[in-house]
Amino acid sequence: MTVTRPLRIAPSILSADFARLGAEVQAIAEAGADYIHVDVMDGHFVPNISFGAPVMNAVRGATDKIFDVHLMIAPTDPYLSDFAKGGADIITVHAEAGPHLHRSLQAIRALGKKAGVALNPATPVSAIEHVIDDCDLVLVMSVNPGFGGQSFIPESLNKIAQARALIGGRDIDLEVDGGVTADNARAIVQAGANVLVAGSAIYAGNDPTTYAERIRTIRHAATGMVV
Ligand SMILES: O=C(CO)[C@H](O)[C@H](O)COP(=O)(O)O
Ligand SMILES: [Fe+2]
């Protein structure tokens, strides 16, 4: 029998108001986020630059929720300890970011953190077959990484199902990131995911009074609850 971990909603602070980042992290945590998704981009692995470990560390004190750090950087290994010391709980590296994925995953666990591996849309699930027991989280990218606000790639649903089959009964989160909304959340969860990242769908308008309702709407849609 396949055991799926509990549903988690992980707002991406990439879509937050950076001028008020600490307050935005606190607001999203109080609004019901399960994980805080932190997108780190280097302008090399992806065509955009966001922020690094010092900025993440500066807002770490805003909540004690799990910091789910998505590294879109290459190389990754020289920076892992900065993110671990800076307060990351889960550190996810891309399978495409370097030739030694197994070493990177082991390095994250040696730092006492949960190790995640992310797959770009063009990378097959088979790329992580031989490291699946070294992972605590698998992240299926449902857009090409680099920017918030893109549309969900429909083929991702097949890939999520393949990743779920690979994970089987292991205690591993299956996360989906990119273009997640209340409209596709149910299909994503039915395909086998349990962690939904959403940036623009939650932070739209940067109005904290709407965050709890946006998170609740996605959570209810994902569970098939009629509201
Ligand atoms: O990793 C990312 C982009 O590379 C972001 O987490 C993702 O795009 C979230 O934003 P949105 O929900 O607006 O698509
Ligand atoms: Fe992300």
Short key terms for the protein model shown above:
227 residues; alpha/beta; TIM Barrel; eight-stranded parallel sheet; 8 helices; 19% strand; globular; binds ribulose-5-phosphate; binds fe (ii) ion
Characterise the protein shown here.
The structure is a single chain. The chain is an alpha/beta fold. It has a single domain (8-223), classed as TIM Barrel (Alpha-Beta Barrel). 31% of the residues lie in helices and 19% in strands. The protein contains eight helices and eight strands; from the N terminus they run βαβαβαβαββαβαβαα. It has helices spanning 21-30, 53-60, 80-85, 101-110, 156-167, 185-191, 200-203, 211-223; strands at residues 8-11, 35-41, 66-72, 90-94, 114-119, 137-141, 173-177, 195-198. α6 packs across α8. It binds ribulose-5-phosphate and fe (ii) ion. Residues 12, 14-15, 37, 39, 70, 72, 143, 145-150, 177-180, 197-201 line the site of ribulose-5-phosphate (5RP).
Label the CATH architecture.
Alpha-Beta Barrel
What would CATH call the class? Alpha Beta
Q: Helix count, per DSSP?
A: 8
Number of domains: 1
What is the share of helical residues? 25-40%
Count of DSSP strands: 8
The CATH topology is: TIM Barrel
CATH superfamily: Aldolase class I
Helix-strand pattern, N to C? EHEHEHEHEEHEHEHH
Radius of gyration: 16 Å
Strand order of the largest sheet: 1-8-7-6-5-4-3-2
Mean pLDDT: 97
Bound molecules: ribulose-5-phosphate, fe (ii) ion
> Could you list the spans in which at least 5 consecutive residues all have pLDDT below 50?
none
- Strand coverage percent: 15-25%
